[in-house]
Design goal:
The structure is a homodimer. The first copy, chain A, contains 7 helices and 11 strands. In chain A, α1 packs across α3 and α2 packs across α3. Chain A is elongated, with a radius of gyration of 24 Å. In chain A, the strands form 2 sheets. A 6-stranded antiparallel β-sheet of chain A has the order 5-6-7-10-9-8. In chain A, strands 1-3-2 form a 3-stranded antiparallel β-sheet, covered by helices on one side. By secondary structure, chain A is α+β, with helices and mostly antiparallel strands. The longest helix of chain A has 13 residues. Chains A and B meet through α1, β4, β8, β9 and β11 of A and α1, β4, β8, β9 and β11 of B. The structure holds a DNA duplex.
Chain lengths: ~230, ~230
DNA sequence: TAGTGGTCTAGACCACCCC
DNA sequence: GGGTGGTCTAGACCACTAA
């Protein structure tokens, strides 16, 4: 007797395909939730969830009273998964290897202090390390850890476990800022990465806070040819 | 008489702060939806929505029967907003200017054909263009448009409107693939971007499909020093 | 000010999967 | 097998904002 339930995913794909096939062109207002609910034979809540996800994904714009419109310039969002480097390397089938290059207790340099919003010369652990995929030099990492937030880091040698894995298992964090850029390899980094001097290196910088307290800053230089990819 | 309603956002922030303050450590299982609903004095649906968003954001893992756990290694996701380049430039207060460098009707080269999954030598429009922020050379763009999917492009000179803006207002698309890397500037690109030869350039490549049909491929080389940033 | 989306509720059934 | 999350419903009230 009872017809099969309509899922919010059904509604979502239906709406998406109508956008793609041009039934609802960019800029057009699509029918209201109640109307769609009647058409699809489901509750308004179900339509609401479908449209809300499409709005999250940047496909449509929704405003009260104005209704739901197909976006003209899709300010779409890309989602990247930021895996642990070990995971990323092992996913390719290669063996992961970590090596500590240098470890110092050092005062925070002015530039970094400004970025983190702390005092210049605050005590920090400063690490240089390498990550390998089999024999290939995969990533050079320059890492600073704030000893005021993470005093335990002072006693950790970081010769076996890499700083990221050590941190995630010990220190919770609330905010992350990521930034990506390109850097010409300096002589020493080029050497570590077995790359020609001046090679263009894909560069990621990550700053982490726990509430208002900065935890760590890492600058990661990838081997030449590295690519970060996503399917949106 | 009636207490103020508890919002799913209230629940979400409460749960988040308990994770951050260590009440629920990484790896720990947090109480079930019913229990939390009782504690917060709201419906289970409300708790469900809060936890579902946290799962979306990669903060917790949820499995039927197993319950909800705080993630140990936060395979966190970063969301980038990919704006139109005009918007990105104008947001900085600079004036946006577009210039067409070259326009050809050309057969699809083998490498690109392979990436797009179409025949080598399929007819395409091939454009080179520049985007400026005030006087600063901001981005060099190398763009291919598939004439089999977008035949109208053959008649468009692209001398006034940039290819991206022309496309988004005309051709819907269903899938995008983005990839980021770093490139050493070739002599000609260095010239266009007023950058030293061999400069490391942040590079974005975008491929767009409409269902199974490739629409366009763009390779965008940013001026030296460009940075893509996100707050997660 | 009226119409649209935003959200909450209470209840229900289902699917999955660890024990 | 039974407990947990996943989802749908029907109804309600609210908040925002375009007209």
């Amino acid at each position: 007797m009872s017809p099969p339930k309509v899922s919010y995913l059904d509604v979502k794909t239906q709406v998406l395909s109508r956008i793609h096939d041009g039934t609802w062109a960019p800029g057009a207002t699509i029918p209201g939730e109640v109307e769609l609910a009647t058409e699809f034979g489901c509750a308004r809540t179900t339509v609401n969830r479908a449209l809300q996800e499409l709005a999250d994904e940047g496909i449509v714009d929704r405003r009260r009273k104005a209704g739901t419109r197909v976006k003209t310039s899709p300010t779409r969002q890309a989602r990247f998964t930021i895996p642990l480097i070990r995971t990323e390397i092992e996913a390719t089938g290669a063996a992961y290897r970590y090596a500590l290059v240098d470890r110092q207790i050092a005062p925070c340099p002015p530039g970094l202090a400004a970025q983190l919003g702390i005092e210049t010369n605050s005590p920090m652990v400063h690490l240089s390390c390498m990550h390998y995929a089999d024999a290939l030099a995969f990533q050079y990492e320059d890492r600073w850890i704030n000893l005021e937030t993470v005093p335990e880091a002072k006693a950790e040698p970081f010769d076996v476990i890499n700083p990221n894995e050590w941190l995630v298992s010990r220190v919770p964090f609330s905010d992350v800022e990521l930034s990506f850029s390109a850097t010409n390899a300096s002589a020493s980094v080029a050497d570590f990465l077995s790359a020609p001097d001046g090679s263009a290196l894909f560069t990621a910088e990550r700053t982490t806070w726990l509430q208002a307290r900065p935890v760590t800053f890492a600058r990661m230089l990838f081997h030449p040819g590295y690519r970060m990819t996503t399917l949106v």
